[in-house]
Amino acid sequence: xxxxxxxxxILIILWLxxxxxxxxxxxxxxxxxxxxVDVQLKRRHDLIPNxxxxxxxxxxxxxxxxxxxxxxxxxxxxxxxxxxxxxxxxMLTQALRQLFALAENYPDxxxxxxxxxxxxxxxxxxxxxxxxxxxxxxxxxxxxxAISIFPNNLIASPLGFSSKVFFETEEEQRAVPHVxx
Length: 181
What we know:
This protein is mainly α. It has helices at about 1-60, 65-80, 80-105, 105-110, 115-150, 150-155, 170-175. It has a single domain (about 1-165), classed as de novo design (two linked rop proteins) (Up-down Bundle). The longest helix has about 55 residues, at about 1-60. The radius of gyration is 23 Å and the shape is rod-shaped. Mean pLDDT is about 85; it is low at about 170-180.
């Protein structure tokens, strides 16, 4: 009888260890995935000053839009938590869209090789951010599911595992653009 109780206790302890290690692995994966997103966001932040300077040369009287982009870039750089970064990056994305919409009014700017090069580089970075964001959200989904399901939640909650926030775009960015001819 003692052997059976000992075997059951050992199995329970091993089961708890397996669950704990899986939760740790998933938490580390979410942190690594966020780091990948952060690297891509930094690349975008580094490109923005060059883009703003190029636009400034052609559209200097559009000062408000340019200042807004720079201001939001600085706020985004200063954001610490993933939640803050997500919010500020969504605002920065909107400001960049306004900047590119502004470029439509300046044929010389649109024709500038430097502007086109920066625009293409930003497009590549945006695609990398999108890929990193999709991976991050998939890992967050797996992590949040793992800490929420029974019996994992019995271990996760007391040990301080808390759900992570998805990197979602805001509703305005999801809207389908209207094309008019």
